[in-house]
């Protein structure tokens, strides 16, 4: 890394959210801080007979308000969520994306997304057309709408973004890994990167694919479907949605008068194998140490942890032990929260939503609670019941994937950098 690169740091200047508890950061953050749980019975057509009964569903989302008709018909629901969240993040950042910018720096803005499954609902519909009516009834967009990279392509085409583009396929942890990927692009000289993840796994075919996960909760009571860090933990409830961000070089963003919502200071990632939750202790700890080292952050300087919170006893125990391994005695004192317990785990979109929550937590001085949970079975200061007023300067966000990826991101308060 040369000296000019060393001076560049990736700052979050825009946040956009599409989640089961709200569209837009204001709605999302209000519901998150209130500890509102929106987990509910799945009422999507074709899903009635599934043993998966409870999930976090996005209600009342009108894709036509965010996405042009010509794009809507060519894309899956997961891309609709991504386009909406990316658009909200760009608006929040007030980043110039007009023709004048294009002329000065046509390759200045890139796009990075993460995806776990792609456009399953769209693909299912086209395959049903194929087998029921024949190949002439299959549209040309079947070739692209299902693809896990579709959201990256559609966001870049829609915005005319010609900078570095990519998609990260690293399991649920991909939401954090995509941020790290984008941050490296910024450090290397890219003006800005639109980055994030959104998923839409609540559809018949997608749900059948998930049924092989032993970590999935089959509870029928929404209040008991996702209880991380408790003795009653019996798996997680899935969700749809996600979050997007605009990352820019911190100094450049400040020079244009942008609001620095957070600084992405460090990242670490490892791999420990599918469902090997005991082994995830070492892998997650190593990822945390990598994030802290890159951020030059001492363990006792971590002010809040947004936990992975899988709600599988072996996994929850491994996460609690990993925190103790890295943070020492501070692990029992630092506030830990898992707001996703109220909306479900949106796979790659889940860690992106946690990052949005962490940035807003730093900005607003409020640690959201873990919904539906009243106690903790581990030596953690789990925030439950009500949001907790605080003055955090650093937030550690953790994520693990069902296939074995582990990732950690360290955010710093924007005004502290």
From TrEMBL:
Residue ranges occupied by any Ketosynthase family 3 (KS3) domain in the UniProt entry: 7-413
Keyword terms, alphabetized: Acyltransferase, Transferase
Single GO molecular function: 3-oxoacyl-[acyl-carrier-protein] synthase activity
Gene Ontology biological-process entries: fatty acid biosynthetic process
Superkingdom, taxonomy of origin: Bacteria
Family: Belongs to the thiolase-like superfamily. Beta-ketoacyl-ACP synthases family.
UniProt protein name: Beta-ketoacyl synthase
Organism this protein belongs to: Catenulispora acidiphila (strain DSM 44928 / JCM 14897 / NBRC 102108 / NRRL B-24433 / ID139908)
